[in-house]
Fold this sequence. Notes:
Layout: E1 10-15, E2 33-34, E3 37-38, H1 39-49, E4 55-60, H2 65-71, E5 77-81, H3 86-96, E6 103-106, H4 116-127, E7 132-138, E8 143-146, E9 152-156, E10 162-164, E11 168-171, H5 172-179, H6 190-195, E12 201-204, H7 215-233
The structure holds cytidine-5'-monophosphate.
Cytidine-5'-monophosphate is lined by residues 15-18, 29-30, 59, 82-86, 89, 108-110, 211, 213.
Amino acid sequence: MRAPSSGAGVVAVLPAAGSGVRLGAGVPKAFVGLAGVPMLVRAVDGLLASDVVGHVVVVVPADQVAGAAALLPARPVTVVAGGADRTASVAAGLAAADPDAEVVLVHDAARPLTPAAVVRRVVDAVRAGAAAVIPVLPVTDTVKQVDADGVVVSTVDRSALRAVQTPQGFRAADLRRAHAGTPDPRTDDAGLVEALGDPVATVAGDPLAFKVTTAWDLRIAELLLAGAAREETV
Ligand code: C5P
């Protein structure tokens, strides 16, 4: 058991300002209900349940700030407006984060089933001295590079590949340095740290930390939650 205060010094930025076009739900993806609970609420509660996160900065579309705050009462949460792309949304969250935080996590609202153990592994690795830490899984499919016509150019050696999840963890000063100025949009924050030439460490991810992108992913997440609920009642 960890002491309740072990989240001191760790702030999580939760970018949830995407439109979710690929999900086709008609509302921003983070606000879509998953077994009745919006994904963004599940993601916040998952971070706080780890006992290693003291505060969460939630980043949502500008017209959803009040709505998101209303969904998250009685939690150590700040809600701010996001930007045009994920990198800009994370930068907005970082600007609102406690300047004295030592560790910053960046987590996708679109990974609502991420186990607390993954959050703890990432924070532990940063606390142990890594500047940047990402949770990863081995790639199980064969991966090929194709040209613009879809013709195979090469087969990539998958043994050296990893699929990358969130939360990604950083020494706060290093993430702020990586976001200084106007960085090129990236699909993750470790990419910004890599661009500075700094090492990025890996820890084990978890299949449950998958990203909900399509209606299929949403269905899988619903089925997993239904299965978990059934197991609890037997
Ligand atoms: O689009 P994708 O699924 O890669 O988005 C990953 C995360 O980044 C999601 O949680 C999404 O809400 C967030 N995002 C954001 N601001 C944007 C675009 C995406 O906060 N402008």
